[in-house]
């Protein structure tokens, strides 16, 4: 018996992701006719939601209300919002479209938070009528809300979004706490803090404070310092009001995701430990909490699988031309240094591809030269008919389609793999048909431009 095992290296078995890719190819979810699809690990999503809940359990156990409002922009897909609602999460919405999705997922108004820098009067009126929490962005918006509150009573929890102006993280476009960020009331500008305190003292219905210092690339201490700024401001307002007027702090989302390996780091728990160090007052139970995490709940659980249509070479560089490019990985293609993705190679049957690493470009289907999801990346040499999988793409990728070249939105499927390895799929979104795509592109108005002379 010993002879059978001697010297054989431990080969890791297939992961649930490997099983899902194989099953997606086998069952035709990824096929020559539908050459790209998004796959979502449902058990993984539930696990992340449970981790988030349990990390803040000490608050709930002490009777402090906590709402985890999922940032809908990270995965604007109704079944995903429904799944998260099942796990006790609400929604953070930032447009009428996102609100419509949250409502379609049966997320109740009391678990919905509206944040957007450009809310129209109609949006504000609807939110207040529904009782949805609104984080007011600026003095002009506050004036609009004043008028609405005066005209009809509302049960909607209301607060101001403030920008503590702490500085940026590693990605400028994602940093919302810079001196000149477009979001919230810039707290360190001259007279701003006093204006905010006065605004609260004049309006007993302002009961919340909101901050979100950035997404991805933010260090935990900087995130915690943003929460500290909220906490200190709430204490100041309440001291001046002589009562606990501000009762809830909305600390935003922004926990960064590790795109370099399968490891989840940092964790929610690590973030809460940094919060405990830097904002101990938060843990004394005087403030209810709202969180707005997006990427950290979903990213690790999604995979884009794309067929390799052609393998070629140019200037000595092998190139795999696949069906996943800027339409599903927009940020990675346009800002590759800030948004690198891991690519895994699978063969034509959807099995992990073996072979020596060969530096190659993994290109997408779009008609511009920069449509590359990976450049000069060492991978087993991809051949036509193989599959390239873009890992960690559960947030802001297949749910955030870019309609370049009229490429259709790919299908998205949730999966579970039971211990025996049996994979089950559920549809999140069917692939967009050419009829739908034509309709969306003005198909019903084909003759109209010709009538203008
Ligand atoms: C985008 C955004 C979030 C979510 O950020 P993640 O990095 O996905 O966690 C939360 N709150 C606000 C206001 C946002 O704009």
UniProtKB/TrEMBL annotation:
MF-aspect GO terms: diaminopimelate decarboxylase activity
**Domain Orn/DAP/Arg decarboxylase 2 N-terminal: where?**
51-298
Q: Does the keyword Amino-acid biosynthesis apply?
A: yes
Q: Which Pfam families match?
A: Orn_Arg_deC_N, Orn_DAP_Arg_deC
Q: Which UniProt keywords apply?
A: Amino-acid biosynthesis, Lysine biosynthesis, Pyridoxal phosphate
> Which parts of the sequence belong to the Orn/DAP/Arg decarboxylase 2 C-terminal domain?
300-394
Q: Where in the sequence is N6-(pyridoxal phosphate)lysine found?
A: 73
The record's active-site residues are: 367 (proton donor)
Report the record's Gene Ontology biological process terms. Answer: lysine biosynthetic process via diaminopimelate
Q: Which PANTHER family match?
A: DIAMINOPIMELATE DECARBOXYLASE, GROUP IV DECARBOXYLASE
What name does this protein carry?
Diaminopimelate decarboxylase
Q: Provide the species name.
A: Streptomyces benahoarensis
